[in-house]
Amino acid sequence: MRKRALITGVAGQDGTYLTELLLGKGYEVFGITGPDSGDFLQRAEDSGGALHSVTADLTDMESLLAAVEVARPDEVYNFAAQSSVGNSWSEAIATTDVNAMGVLRILEAIRQLAPEARLFQASSAEMFGNAAEMPQSETTRLHPQSPYAASKAYAFQVVGSYRDSYGMHVSNGIMFNHESPLRGLQFVTRKITDGVARIKLGLADELVLGNLDAQRDWGFAGDYVEAMWLMLQQQRPDDYVIASGEVHTVREFCAAAFTYLGLDYERYVRSDPRFVRPVDVHVFYGDASKAREVLGWEPRVRFAELVHMMVDADMERLSAKA
Ligand code: GDP
Question: Does the pLDDT value for residue 321 go beyond 80?
Answer without folding.
Answer: no
